[in-house]
């Protein structure tokens, strides 16, 4: 039995998510927007019966059993944790900071019977499902290098907001880079041990953002990850990705069609996902072969949502349907269909890598990726000062 | 009047160079090979009247006025410097070390009336000539990022030799990366101030190299250059490239067709050279436009010589013809047609960058690019030891 859905957010992802959910038979009962106007406008457009700007009104809505959170990163943690506390299943986007991500992990561990996934749609894209499968089957031999690049137009909103602000989770690294960090770990079955990166903000002001306001979030970034042993233990093979170099290049000063390319190179061949299609070439073979084309399906490129994300989102919603439909209870779900999803633990790892890359860009040095195992004490600095004064 | 030519080298570049020279009307009088057999075999194949394994026999050959040196890097300095000393014009490839490159600069400065160029064919490729021109004309607006990538099959020779040995100038960074370092400086009119890099040797042994022998040269590298003020003062515009980030990815574990792509991104658009063709896209324009196709011309891809290098070599030989043909003396030449060539000073800069990238790969840190201004004293270490013992 499919659960009723409440959607948080009125941005481009929320806008494409609602029709995808309905296409799979989910009913969307409630919509939350930052302001009454935004919520009302999109609810009317999409024909959603209830809208609000009060998060509790959605969380406590009796028909809502699954909460999808696609809002600005600084608000994500609060709503996700509260939703779990009220006993709702949660699909959300990344948090703003590692501390937030840690709090989400704690909540998810406290309610293990509830679904809690960070909805990185790329993991569900058929091209990457196939790539992971073929990596495990040894298509490329021993994995050596992963190379990902995404080029596209500016990620900034029309008006000043969190997308402009590095500390609020804006910028290419946080928004798009994090999905690649997650994907590469998922594909290789390994986690970044050390990272090195370079971030730039080339466009500090534009027609909409001027005067005393400046963009602080990155529009260009470039980072390397040296992968170590198996992370979540759920990767393709165990530790096949140990010793692998991953390089990621992101450039959002390139209006026009999105370029979204992920290549994995090994001793015996390579696999390349260009957009939503998968290509492969074996050493000694007859050039590149198309391994998986784009079957078309749900619509064309939507503004601000690159095709790989859109298609992946569609596959993720389908997986959610399979996870819920055979269950008798509206809130029960089967793990199998969503086993490949990114967990909140994965979300914490990703956030840790993103912060290490930012640190590296400031320090100019390789930075270790050390995933938090306990929440930092917010009074620690204060305690240290008291300690010093006592002596 | 065209000068008679002597060619050093029997490798793939020398093999394609001889027909190109003849195609423009140059006569090739002499060929040097590392061994009598190699020299004799290629001389016979190409119909070159004289061959030898003694370098002086070519350098002192009365019909040779222009010496083209395409040999292993550790031998380049010695032959280039000697050739200039004997009064011959020199076109050569890069040296093995910055110290060698510095000695070549000293020799070139001592004989300013002689032609002395490091034959980086990419500078002459019509796609890059056009790219540089359009950069100067502001096609991309304010330049932000350059991104170059070359993927191809292994650079190792069939048998153990300098290509396997990092210290002898083997490896992707030294062989191919150096041509990109030179090109990016030429295109942007700026020089790298700081670099960061990562080098890997994924294939340490193969069918031909085994037992106690191991490959030490890199087959994968990845480096960033932060560009500073104008270098040679001959770039497109003056200092347009200051503050630009350049990223270079080289992977030579990818059998099949070479991928050779150089992209420059600015505030108003971008230019992309794919292989020998140039594409451009202006922000707000109607997608990508082909700006310069490949006119075909001299043959197809030759084994071990990527098409951009082959075509560039053809254009360079044509430029050499124009430099010499209007002159009365066989050894005189006009600067104009070869003004865009890489000088020995450029060669020293490139070698300095290559060494800084290697240093960065070992240290893990950003390294400054400091071009040598005087030859390091080979006795310096000894002196320091004596100094210490005296105290």
Automatic annotation (TrEMBL), chains A, B:
<comment type="function">
    <text>Promotes matrix assembly.</text>
</comment>
<keyword id="KW-0560">Oxidoreductase</keyword>
<dbReference type="InterPro" id="IPR055170">
    <property type="entry name" value="GFO_IDH_MocA-like_dom"/>
</dbReference>
<protein>
    <recommendedName>
        <fullName>Glucose-fructose oxidoreductase domain-containing protein 2</fullName>
    </recommendedName>
</protein>
<feature type="domain" description="GFO/IDH/MocA-like oxidoreductase">
    <location>
        <begin position="128"/>
        <end position="271"/>
    </location>
</feature>
<keyword id="KW-0732">Signal</keyword>
<feature type="domain" description="Gfo/Idh/MocA-like oxidoreductase N-terminal">
    <location>
        <begin position="5"/>
        <end position="111"/>
    </location>
</feature>
<keyword id="KW-0964">Secreted</keyword>
<dbReference type="InterPro" id="IPR000683">
    <property type="entry name" value="Gfo/Idh/MocA-like_OxRdtase_N"/>
</dbReference>
<dbReference type="GO" id="GO:0000166">
    <property type="term" value="F:nucleotide binding"/>
</dbReference>
<dbReference type="InterPro" id="IPR036291">
    <property type="entry name" value="NAD(P)-bd_dom_sf"/>
</dbReference>
<dbReference type="GO" id="GO:0016491">
    <property type="term" value="F:oxidoreductase activity"/>
</dbReference>
<comment type="similarity">
    <text>Belongs to the Gfo/Idh/MocA family.</text>
</comment>
<dbReference type="Pfam" id="PF01408">
    <property type="entry name" value="GFO_IDH_MocA"/>
</dbReference>
<dbReference type="InterPro" id="IPR050463">
    <property type="entry name" value="Gfo/Idh/MocA_oxidrdct_glycsds"/>
</dbReference>
<dbReference type="Pfam" id="PF22725">
    <property type="entry name" value="GFO_IDH_MocA_C3"/>
</dbReference>
<keyword id="KW-0272">Extracellular matrix</keyword>
